[in-house]
């Protein structure tokens, strides 16, 4: 049995597959298999994968109808043979030392369950200001605590950088189709189940940006789906068994979250504060939901609340 299984879902990625898989075959760590699930490709990806499997014995190819990314990942996970699982996307590239360094981190820390890395976005022409801000935020979240407290803002761990113990993934239920971002959904279940996260402070993954990528065209990653995911996560986590909640936000964000929480059965007390003045803080009580997408706003509020003795994730939580 190999030491590592790498899950690669594929949908119409023929243009990028050669470079993507070449970055895997060049890894300095070599005891791994690649489980590629072709999810109904129509651009020649399936045929290319079959030819590549004839040349490279570490590649196993599974062909399925087009059922979507979460189901393709669940299929690959079920077929994987190793006790440690990694992710890699068919249009991305991994640094040749990625698997070596991630495996070393797992050996050094038996309590570690989930490990990511910093990443680069390419090509520059396809990377807008918003994604540059996201990468800066993502790469600053290196510890379990930092990732957990920001988990309702966006994905605190880039999906393609994942390496995880199979047992932790199985306890959390693996990849599930729920109509929203399957990676954030999985991270939240892993956090709930007590899995320990970390992120290596090295850039070991390249995320290719292009107009045909799932983040651009798949409705699972649209704002409405993210809002539904955040609400469900609050309901099952921070607000479980709590119906009275105080909400801090401004403008349209305040109105959206007030309406969503009330429709979900909460009794909501709102505070329209942009900054954490002493007067504002004096009016607050837990459980407190703060809806601020801007990183500087969250940092101001977090510093003020912690200074006043509040405990994050038990008394207050941030959401996007």
Description:
The chain is of the alpha/beta class. The chain has two domains: 4-221, Spore Coat Polysaccharide Biosynthesis Protein SpsA, Chain A; 238-319. The chain is built from 13 helices and twelve strands. The protein has helices spanning 17-25, 45-55, 69-79, 98-108, 129-140, 144-149, 166-172, 182-192, 214-217, 223-236, 251-263, 278-281, 295-307; strands spanning 4-10, 32-39, 59-64, 84-87, 93-94, 114-122, 163-165, 197-208, 244-248, 267-271, 288-291, 316-319. The strands form two sheets. Strands 3-2-1-4-7-6-8-5 form an eight-stranded mixed beta sheet, sandwiched between helices. The chain has a four-stranded parallel beta sheet with strand order 10-9-11-12, covered by helices on one side. Helix 11 (251-263) links the parallel strand 9 (244-248) and strand 10. Helix 7 crosses helix 8 (182-192). It is elongated, with a radius of gyration of 21 Å. The chain starts with a strand and ends with a strand. The model has no long low-confidence stretch (mean pLDDT 97). One of its GO terms (molecular function) is glycosyltransferase activity. Residues 5-170 form the Glycosyltransferase 2-like domain. This is Glycosyltransferase. Keywords: Glycosyltransferase, Transferase. Belongs to the glycosyltransferase 2 family.
């Amino acid at each position: 049995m190999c030491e590592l299984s790498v899950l690669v879902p594929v949908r119409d990625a023929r243009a990028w597959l050669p470079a993507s898989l070449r970055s895997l075959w060049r890894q300095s760590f070599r005891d791994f298999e690649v489980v590629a699930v072709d999810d109904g490709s129509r651009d020649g990806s399936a045929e290319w994968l079959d030819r590549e499997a004839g040349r490279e014995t570490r590649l196993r190819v599974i062909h399925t109808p087009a059922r979507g990314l979460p189901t393709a990942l669940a299929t690959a996970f079920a077929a994987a043979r190793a006790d440690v699982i990694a992710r890699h996307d068919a249009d991305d590239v991994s640094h040749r030392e990625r698997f070596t360094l991630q495996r070393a981190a797992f050996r050094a820390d038996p309590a570690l369950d989930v490990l990511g890395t910093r990443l680069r976005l390419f090509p520059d022409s396809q990377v807008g200001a918003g994604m540059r801000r996201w990468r800066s935020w993502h790469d600053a979240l290196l510890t379990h605590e930092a990732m957990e407290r920001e988990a309702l803002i966006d994905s605190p761990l880039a999906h393609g950088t994942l390496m995880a113990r199979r047992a932790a993934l199985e306890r959390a239920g693996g990849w599930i189709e729920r109509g929203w971002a399957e990676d954030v959904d999985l991270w939240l279940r892993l956090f709930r189940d007590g899995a320990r996260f970390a992120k290596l402070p090295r850039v070991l993954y390249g995320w290719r940006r292009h107009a045909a990528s799932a983040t651009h065209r798949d409705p699972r990653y649209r704002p409405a789906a993210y809002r539904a995911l955040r609400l469900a996560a609050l309901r099952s986590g921070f607000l479980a068994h709590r119906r009275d909640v105080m909400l801090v936000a401004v403008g349209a964000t305040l109105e959206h979250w007030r309406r969503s929480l009330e429709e979900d059965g909460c009794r909501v007390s709102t505070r329209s504060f942009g900054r954490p003045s002493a007067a504002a803080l004096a009016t607050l009580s837990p459980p407190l939901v703060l809806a601020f997408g801007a990183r500087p706003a969250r940092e101001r509020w977090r510093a003020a609340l912690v200074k006043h003795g509040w405990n994050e994730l038990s008394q207050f939580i941030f959401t996007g």
